[in-house]
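Sharing a chain and its predicted structure for anyone who wants a worked example. Both blocks are below, sequence first, tokens second.
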Amino acid sequence: MINDCLEINILTIFPNMFKGPFSESILNKAQEKGLIKINIIDLRDFTLDKHKTVDDYSYGGGTGMVLKPQPIWDAVEAIKKNKSPLPLKIIITSAQGKIFNQGMAKDLSKENRLLIICGRYEGIDERIPQLLDAEEVSIGNFVVSGGELPAMLMVDAISRMIPGVLGKEESMVNDSFYNGYLDYPHYTRPDEFKGLKVPEILLSGNHKEIEKWRRKQSLLRTLIRRPEIFANKKLSKRELALLKELEKGFKED
């Protein structure tokens, strides 16, 4: 079932971090159109002590703190009961998770309701992902201070996949990774800048040849910058033909 409005809940200990990014540009317009609804939820509201403690020491020793299970569990229970009867897909931002990619963004955009739990410190008590049947997701092989920035990136990528969020649907189709490859080079006026000229084909008005050039450039850029993408791709006959043309061009050079 695909809902008309995707509900995105974000559980965090730093709710103020989200005020700017979600009140500007595409995400703000998507909310105004009723295509997405973003709820920022403060984890500290679900603590049981006067100090609003969300973390504790790690069993077995170590220098870092771990997010306690109780506040997260109670927050999720409240979200399930109070917001909507629709199914809730739960994501936890974690360095140990699957790498977030365009395919995942597309799949998540088809959900009715999402909950992104922002990790912090050394992470979240291991019992939480088990109890909630949550999917742990990482944005890459590098370390950031917490899950808030990854959550922002994921919300942006997911929202772009929802019909009507972008001004032109072709903008989404031409995005890097939408079709599995990197985007082709883009140019604007002037025709020449600091001695560098716009490729003649783009000024020709021949839309068929322009489309072919862009496709070749997309394949070439992917081959040079991200060759591992081809490992899991089943190339079409057209793509194979374009790659052969590129190979021929290299040999001639």
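Comments welcome. The chain has a mean pLDDT of 91.
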